[in-house]
Amino acid sequence: MLVDKVQEVFNEPGCATNLGKSEKERKKGCTKALKPGAAAGGCAFDGAKIALQPIADAAHLVHGPIACEGNSWDNRGSKSSHSQLYRTGFTTDLSELDVIHGAEKKLFKAIKEIVLKYDPPAVFVYQTCVPALIGDDVEAVCKFAADKLGKPIIPVNAPGFVGSKNLGNKLAGETLLDHVIGTREPEVTTPYDINIIGEYNLAGEFWLVKPLLDKMGVRILSMISGDGKYNEVATAHRAKVNMLVCSQALINIARKMEERYGIPYFEGSFYGVSDMSDTLRNIANLLVERGAPTDLITRTEAIIREEEARAWRRLAPYKERLAGKRVLLFTGGVKSWSMVSALEGAGLEIIGTSVKKSTKEDKERIKKMKGEEFHMWEELKPSDIARMLRDSEADIMLSGGRSQFIALKAKVPWLDVNQERHVGFAGYDGIVALVEEIDKTLGNPIWRQVRSAAPWE
Amino acid sequence: MLVDKVQEVFNEPGCATNLGKSEKERKKGCTKALKPGAAAGGCAFDGAKIALQPIADAAHLVHGPIACEGNSWDNRGSKSSHSQLYRTGFTTDLSELDVIHGAEKKLFKAIKEIVLKYDPPAVFVYQTCVPALIGDDVEAVCKFAADKLGKPIIPVNAPGFVGSKNLGNKLAGETLLDHVIGTREPEVTTPYDINIIGEYNLAGEFWLVKPLLDKMGVRILSMISGDGKYNEVATAHRAKVNMLVCSQALINIARKMEERYGIPYFEGSFYGVSDMSDTLRNIANLLVERGAPTDLITRTEAIIREEEARAWRRLAPYKERLAGKRVLLFTGGVKSWSMVSALEGAGLEIIGTSVKKSTKEDKERIKKMKGEEFHMWEELKPSDIARMLRDSEADIMLSGGRSQFIALKAKVPWLDVNQERHVGFAGYDGIVALVEEIDKTLGNPIWRQVRSAAPWE
Amino acid sequence: MFKAHQSNKAATINPLKMSQPLGGALALLGIDNCLPCFHGSQGCTAFGLVLMVRHFREAIPLQTTAMDQVQTILGGYDNLEAAVLTMYERNKPEVIGVCTTGLTETKGEDMRGALATFRKRHPEVSDNCHLVFVNTPDFTGGLEDGFANTVTAIIDGMVTPSEMTVSNRVNVLAGSHLTPGDVEEIRDLIEGFGLTAVILPDLSTSLGGRQPDDFKATTLGGVTAKEIQGMGASVLTLALGEHMRKPAEALERKTGVPFLLFDRLVGLEAADRFIKALADVSGQPVPARVRRQREHLVDGMLDGHFYFSRKRVAVALEPDLLAAYCGFLQDMGCEVTAAVAPTQSPALEKIKAWSLLVGDHEDFETLSHGSDLVISNSHARQSVDRLGTPLVRAGFPTFDRLGAGHRVVVGYRGTRDLLFELGNIFLANDHEHASHDWKHDPKMEDHHGGPHAAA
Amino acid sequence: MFKAHQSNKAATINPLKMSQPLGGALALLGIDNCLPCFHGSQGCTAFGLVLMVRHFREAIPLQTTAMDQVQTILGGYDNLEAAVLTMYERNKPEVIGVCTTGLTETKGEDMRGALATFRKRHPEVSDNCHLVFVNTPDFTGGLEDGFANTVTAIIDGMVTPSEMTVSNRVNVLAGSHLTPGDVEEIRDLIEGFGLTAVILPDLSTSLGGRQPDDFKATTLGGVTAKEIQGMGASVLTLALGEHMRKPAEALERKTGVPFLLFDRLVGLEAADRFIKALADVSGQPVPARVRRQREHLVDGMLDGHFYFSRKRVAVALEPDLLAAYCGFLQDMGCEVTAAVAPTQSPALEKIKAWSLLVGDHEDFETLSHGSDLVISNSHARQSVDRLGTPLVRAGFPTFDRLGAGHRVVVGYRGTRDLLFELGNIFLANDHEHASHDWKHDPKMEDHHGGPHAAA
To answer: Where does the Nitrogenase/oxidoreductase component domain lie (chains A, B) (predicted)?
Structure first.
């Protein structure tokens, strides 16, 4: 059954990468074969949890030995404006005895304890490698528990060894499609209802965008999943429009919701002035297409005019100082192009971007923006980056926390653009914040000091 | 003029020490001649400021070079429940030019700045040695400023070199008598109005007593001076009864108020169960004598019964552990006996008490309590204390912060009973707190550790 | 054997425990030019890696055998072999250490057999690179156990008996409760007696913040393979932490070097024992600066004890670090309200606390109510937010503060700094009562002279 | 000469300045078996004594000539003589230091003349005890000046020119901005190069927390009179702090020993200069542990700089300490919003700040609005309560925390610890935005890209 689900995900027609593949290639699946001793990256369980855990009022229970939750909980920057339950780490912490005798009973007991203590609207139960190996039937236990406890108890069947983080994201999407979306009706609906899919509200950055939607009069029916509420996700099928933020991660949700419920979707970005404006425009246009009054468009354009003017005015002082500064972008997915456009708007020069986790469509976009000559690295090894930085090919690297020390040890400025950062970069305010962060880091006087050799050398 | 005032203070008939002296001795004054190179203790300015600064809503301006205020501000634990202005340090910070040319104008300017910025109900202006030497007429400046600014500006003429801290206390009392008390009328008076004189509310400990007075129905017309308000002190002459807390420091206020306004006073202590009860009783009896309804006495006795029972119950667990523990009391004044009685109530043994700053009456009290054999040290040198402690004659020393290191360096427990402590010892709750502090310190396991020599010795 | 009471819930909530292989990796990171690897899914490595990067703020070399579902069912040797070959070819480390995970242990992985097979098939690798294979299943023990098992495996696999003795050399088995900063301080103390120390593992020279000239995919700094091999020539082994007892015994068995075990180095008397041992083994007088440090600590205890007496402190840490903190708090007159460990250990037997428990952060939060201070890893930030209690971050992981690796609490100086740190928190919170604190409140009775005060 | 802008108020409000004699006493407290004394009213001594006891948490020997009104008018020599005789008879110190006060200076006190007279009248004392008489009027300068003047007077009065040179010995003139802990760290660094140091004054051995066997009314520990006398035999003087320039010049004049001045020892490049000088004078390589400390500091700067960039910090301290902190903050990319000193000094010239002022805590409070952090002595607690800004306590007096004397900010290690301390405050306050922070707020414009950010 898990095998079928994995194959289904591999066939995902909404996935640009898949569309570029032959039938045979597609069968092999998205995940590249990993090279033992030279691999990096998260597993499918990691991916599933990243996608679902931001649903903040649900309990997220990891069925596995301590490594899966004990080594990983409390490590991401998704923020919630309501319940903080998602920050609580739940696990069955399997012991040797559990491994020998099976842990289905323990799992049920754990679910029950959680429901009694915390009374969440739902419990997501994550399968992991060890119980999958010993044959614990998580789906059956969840069904039993749901019946007994009268709550949605949702199995997330994405044990680490089935594949990559990316696959896990998609399996999480399937979980929502199969078990959550469409299971409740909203109390009211409006012509302005949208879902935001694939936005995780890192550093609370969606709160830089939401006031603009409020001003437009757009209502967010559900967030999937940053700052999300379980019962709102359950009503997502009644939205008029879906916005998909990260192009690859949860594409299956958007596409299947279109298929099942006829909800159109578009892919958008909150990063950079013009992309942000395009996103607001798209929301307004699609809502109007689906029957919202047309003055929404006028209102939206007015907001865009005002916000853009304000943003450019605020960016102006930085532009001069940052002109010609060279950025190495080492991230993936939508950020590989959305950040490019955002940064170039502020006068920075992008020397290249990694596209390891980017889709074919992402890459096309970059080509359209930057031309064929532009560096797009499929595989950029740490040692290569280190060399580039030591050779002063870039003034600053933008990446995630794990790769920061490649830059810092080379004494090159670095900025976190991934999940551990504490500054929001979304929306018009966010791009100003991003540019300010870059300016602050580039302007810091430590660089000259740390680059000088000890005076006795 | 200052000379007259000093002499007047020396003649104070309310002062038990003076009463024990011959006419000739009295002329010489209270202050013992200091031995250069072997003296310790504060000056008259210090004493005046200690007594007046707890009037919390007034500004306290020190006219002198930086040493007088710069080295000493923000160093006492009097607490205020209202204005915190008394914690602000004001000084004219005299420069060499001021010393050469005189600083009366600067003083006036300083007063004016303070009045404009902080609008206090009054400014106390403290004369110090240097401007006294150069002939700055602080009294004239204050009078001029009071006229110009329409506020009480009160000269406190107690420069350091006229004598000891104790003399300074009394000069502060004279200042209040001459310039403050009787200058305003209270809005209402009641038969239950009292003043508390000589309580500085260290560590906020008077707030352990006040709820009991509230319960009795006693109104505090003015606090002189802990947690005091200037305008209340100005109405103090309308109280029915004065309670004098520290027997020596502000005796002149109590006596002269009796003389001038016919207000009877008694000396009382808030330390220890029975002394606390006596104090409440005295207040009630004197108020009834002055016309308050007699049920005040019944009410008071009920409170005493309840509070004493509660206190003894709470002290019981400590009594057993502390039985026979020997205390060296190195303090002065009223604490030399009030602490004895408080501590013996909790089962501790007092091996002796210093009486350097105690009055004759204080000493009589001790004799009555403890007999002639009891150690009363007039002059206890640090080296003597150190010897006693090293010879294990005491299990703990109670004193002020300055002498703490005599005990600590001898590896003997010590407890602060003076102005820098952070725990209130007044009232029924306070005695429990005191005993708990002693128990905590004696029971701390560090003593064995710090007394062991290094293993290589 | 002593067993602490164990929380009996089916759901572990806010885990305190981390996995064995993580401890194994930590031990391997203290060896120079080494590449640690987890034998499991790539996710096992990714989680461990991120956690260590966040704590140490350093690049962490850690590889994976990248097991997938099919390979797991078929058996993991092929991936293990492939991984070791790749790591060797790409990075030419001197030491490769492989720790199993839950995934590979579920099927059962004979690491001894695997090592023998690999040696036979790839002498070109095993002749040029030390291989350490360790069983560290996720589903038994925790970080401290994985660390201890790996140190034992390193000793078993690398140390050789020695004919000769170097008279001024000592071995140090530095447990996982010691930060790089602690290890630095310990070496400093040892060298003050004219001794040299072989420290296994030596995190101070690998994870203290090296500035490499070039990018390196293996560890940079740490004890060298050659030094480890020569540990048999030392005159004495100083085993630091109860969990270093087994490795110390293994080392003694193999080389005859006797050991002294120091369950903690925090606290006056604990530091005294250590310094005394150094004086004894070296025959040297205690250096003047160490004597001064002792005086300063005594002075700090005298000055600071006021603020510690009967303060209520809740501590949740790995066992040996837990024992060290609880012991010090006890030395200073605190009441340890709750001592919570993630796993069982003989170290727990010495702890005196109102509640001693093997449990998780949820248990800890419940037991911490009413405490004046909480000491635990960064995960406790969630509970102290709810409790309103100050948190001192200690142990692993500390990911939301700078300098976790440089925290020093050992020796006289480390103890004194810890004393001031905790004392100042107590002092700051004791300070400045306001009038509303003093309302006549019958509940005060519980505060002063309550059952615990009288206990 | 450079003059910083000076507050022009008649009323000094919440003084930052302390008096010259206090600085004088501080310098004398770093000499072994010494008894300092104030020539003034007993109150002058009592205030100074209490302040130092509260800061150092140590018994402080400090006497008084106990001047009263009549004696002051008649002239103070008699009391001065009586005080010195009494101190000598009772306590047999090796050094007696007398500082004048405002009281005795108002009449004018010829301390040179008094010393000559005393020597003539009491050779039985002056032959057996070094006497240092210094003019330190309360109404000019402040603590730092009193300290510098007294160190100069000690040099003038006690040091003798030397015929021979001790090749591995250096002098250190340790300014009042250095804590006992700083001095300890500095000696440690110097000794690491095989040098010995004569440190004047040496607070590290007198005020670090000695545990005497018996009660002593004089200082216990510190540089000895004999060591001071022999300073002429050193090869170099390291003058630490701008205010040690004059004493260093006096020493050079008297003995020919050249000096190097280090305006600060906080910060990477500042520490580099110092270590380079030690390497040069000793001819020794930089010890491995110091090299590691440098790497660790560089690492700390890389890890920590994120939290420092453009943070707004307000600092009020004595001039040399102010310059050290402001310099370090600047090194790390902070904006110094306000730098306030109690007195003028050439050290102020190097400070870059939005506002640089000679003023008091009231001025400082006004200038600190909107800062992310305040660094000052304990008196600033009142203003930060009103401002709601975190306070790092530094300098003198720090009376409401333990360990003021053990704070170390010099050298690579001290700088790194300071970096972590400040960085963690910034980090803790940056952390965890909540939804209400992100309201669409036009005022944000002032925050991001405001005039200062663009400056």
So the answer is: 43-442
Q: HEC states along C153-217?
A: HHHHHHCCCCCCCCCCEEEEEECCCCCHHHHHHHHHHHHCCCCEEEEECCCCCCCCCCCCCCCCC
Residues B360, B288 share a domain: no
| Residue carrying the six token digits 């359209």 | A368
**CB-CB neighbors (< 8 A) of A207 in chain D:** 433, 435, 437-438
A454 neighbourhood in chain D, CB within 8 Å: 272, 286, 291, 294
Say whether both A149 and A256 belong to one domain. Answer: no
Beta bridge partner(s), residue B328: B352, B397
Pairing of strands B90-91, D12-13: antiparallel
Give the model confidence (pLDDT) of C161-219 as tens digits. 999 999 999 999 999 999 999 999 999 999 999 999 999 999 999 999 999 988 889 99
Specify the range with the lowest mean pLDDT, choosing from A363-367, C128-132, D62-66.
A363-367
CB C178 within 8 A of CB C26: no
C66 at the A interface (CB within 8 A)?
Answer: yes
With an 8 Å CB cutoff and a minimum of 3 pairs, decide whether chains A and B touch.
no
Chain B touched by D214 (CB under 8 Å):
yes
Sign of the CA dihedral D338, D340, D346, D347?
Answer: negative
Chain segment C403-427, per-residue pLDDT in tens? 999 999 999 999 999 999 999 999 9
- The answer to whether the Cβ–Cβ distance between A429 and D440 falls below 8 Å is yes
Question: Last residue of some domain: A257, A285, A308?
Answer: A308
Q: What distance in Å separates the CA atoms of residue B448 and residue A379, rounded to the nearest whole number? A: 64
Distance CA A393, CA A409 (A): 15
Calculate helix-pair angle for B104-118, B138-149, nearest 10 degrees: 40
Residue C446: predicted pLDDT: 39
Is the same domain home to B44 and B156?
A: yes
**Which residues on B lie below 8 Å from D69 (Cβ)?**
132, 159, 161-162
Does B449 contact C291 at a Cβ distance shorter than 8 Å?
no
Check: CB of residue D77 under 8 Å from CB of residue D114.
yes
CA C44 remoteness from chain centre: 20
Contacts of A450 in chain D (CB under 8 A): 268, 298, 301-302
Phi and psi angles of residue D237, each rounded to the nearest 5 degrees, phi first: -110, 130
Domain count, chain A: 3
B313 lies in a domain? no
For residue B298, the domain's CATH number is 3.40.50.12380
For the segment C3-55, what is each residue's pLDDT rounded down to a tens digit? Answer: 899 988 999 999 999 999 999 999 999 999 999 999 999 999 999 999 999 99
Q: Say whether both A80 and A202 belong to one domain.
A: no
Answer whether B429's CB lies under 8 Å from B205's CB. no
CATH label of the domain that carries residue B381: 3.40.50.1980
Residue B152 lies in a domain: yes
CA distance B165 to chain D (A): 8
As a whole-number percent, the residues of chain C with pLDDT over 90 amount to 90
Answer yes or no: do A135 and A164 share one domain.
Answer: yes
ipTM for this model: 0.95
A302 shares its domain with A389: no
Q: Which domain holds residue B363?
A: 323-421
Q: Which domains does chain D have, with CATH numbers?
A: 20-158 (3.40.50.1980), 166-207+215-285 (3.40.50.1980), 292-429 (3.40.50.1980)
Rounded CA separation C304/C309 (Å): 9
Whether A36 and A147 map to the same domain: the answer is yes
Residue A456 maps to a domain: no
Q: Which of B244, B273, B308 is the last residue of a domain?
A: B308
**B203 domain residue, yes or no:** yes
Residues 6+ apart with CB under 8 A from B260: B177, B182, B237
B78 and B174 housed in the same domain: yes
D75 to chain B, any CB pair closer than 8 A? The answer is no
